[in-house]
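Duplicate of earlier report; Mitochondrial pyruvate carrier input re-posted below.
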Amino acid sequence: MAAAIKALNAKIRSNKYSDYFCSTHFWGPASNFGIPIAAIADMSKDPEIISGRMTGALTLYSGTFMRYAMAVTPANYLLFGCHAINFSSQLVQGYRYLNYWNFGGREASLASKAQVEASGAMTKVEQKAGEVADKVKGAVGK
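Output:
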């Protein structure tokens, strides 16, 4: 049985593509792609839920490991790509965080919500006024 496993391993390792596919050079970055996918998915969510500290930490982490991916021999371009995407998406999230909390985005968001609520209230008032006017016309017409 051990000889069969050794023979299978030798067969896999003899092909450079399957050798790469079975290595940590591939599976490390492939499993790490969950972080940038989550960051990209979070870009459509409310900026109020963004953690500034976590965004900063992930930006530094990805920047560091982009350098590491190029420093190893052979260079791991898949790992570099993963961290480049994460670095970029974390920068966007950081901008959204700063814009929301420090540059007036929160106030603008609250103002637009208040404006929507006010217009909804105005519509209700107009509807009630129309109903009252119809009742008055009906009472006067009798």
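The mean pLDDT is 83.

Merging into the original ticket.
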